[in-house]
Amino acid sequence: MPTLEWTGSALRLIDQTKLPDEESYVVCATSAMVAKAIRSMIVRGAPAIGAAAAYGAVLALRESDPKPGLAAIRSSRPTARDLAWALDRVLAAPDPLQEADRIARESVDACRRMGQLGAGLLPNQPRILTICNTGALATVDYGTALGVVRAAQERGLEPSVLVMETRPRAQGARLTTWELRGLGIPHRLIADGAAGRALQEGMVDVALAGADRIAANGDVANKVGTYPLALLCREHGVPFYVVAPLSTIDFHAPDGAAIPIEERDEREVTTFAPAGTRAFNPAFDITPAALVTSVITQLGVLRPPLREALSSLRVTTR
Description:
By secondary structure, this protein is an alpha/beta fold. The chain has 2 domains: 4-108, translation initiation factor eif-2b, domain 1 (Four Helix Bundle (Hemerythrin (Met), subunit A), Up-down Bundle); 115-316, Rossmann fold. The protein is 38% helix and 16% strand. It is built from 10 helices and 14 strands. The strands form 3 sheets. A 7-stranded mixed beta sheet has the order 6-5-4-7-10-13-14, sandwiched between helices. Strands 11-8-9-12 form a 4-stranded mixed beta sheet, covered by helices on one side. The longest helix is centred in the middle third of the chain and has 24 residues, at 96-119.
């Protein structure tokens, strides 16, 4: 089930804000509609955002003045590196639609390859802890970190998953459980704050996370809550793997401090608070490279020291 599809004249998206209660779709016929869909998280997940932005650029280039639409898309989600990467590829291509299609196909191929590489790192009957949603809904299809779980199931490894709810928008509770149920993979939902207890109880063999941007030194920007999860994994000796395509790596960001962190509407976290309560609502945090066991890309598994591994990867992909 692709998260997004080009209809020939518009971009069709699964409305992720309606899941799991309702499976409905949004058709974006203009670049402004694509920008709104990305900003409002109708479509989310770095690879899916990148592909949506690519098709949004196609729509913008068909409009009388492409500049406003392109600017709106570029500013819609500042942390995900895939967004600007996809826009730049489409704008530089002789055939924008052909390039957008290529980006979408490459995303699926990359996810399947990362799934196979990641599954090769897992034991039999792995008990996996995940944060946010990193499955087909976060990509064009198949998934990044959840793609590893999917590949493990296809290999007969019999994985099971502890799903962190991922406050404040509950992508784990709403989306990851929905995908795992459809795939027939055993899973249990936990509160974000229960991750430490699960690790204390020896309920986790490995933690898997995606990434919205990876700096040149290996620092990882991902859904807020990833950093404390990585700290917990280090404390309990549990591998912490990041699964992300090459498009997520930002060689122009020397470290995590250079990655822009989106801060979202305070109302996302004040649902149960007294009226007038102020909130700090960063959408992402930075996990230092030292806490990452390995980064799984479609070209291979990158092991520490990550700065050197990423530098070598940059040379080979030029």
